[in-house]
Amino acid sequence: MKKSRYSEEQIVRILREIDRDTVAEVAKRNGVSEASIYVW
After folding, report:
1. Taking burial as the number of CB atoms within 10 A of a residue's CB, which of 7, 20, 27, 38 is the most buried?
2. Would you say residue 1 has pLDDT above 70?
């Protein structure tokens, strides 16, 4: 299985940021694509 670029803790932190900001802003700030965030 492929190793994830982000740990589970990092993913959870990024997803919690979406409660405060838009997906686009959070994705750009963290260097993640919007599509990746929606998959998470």
Report:
1. 27
2. no
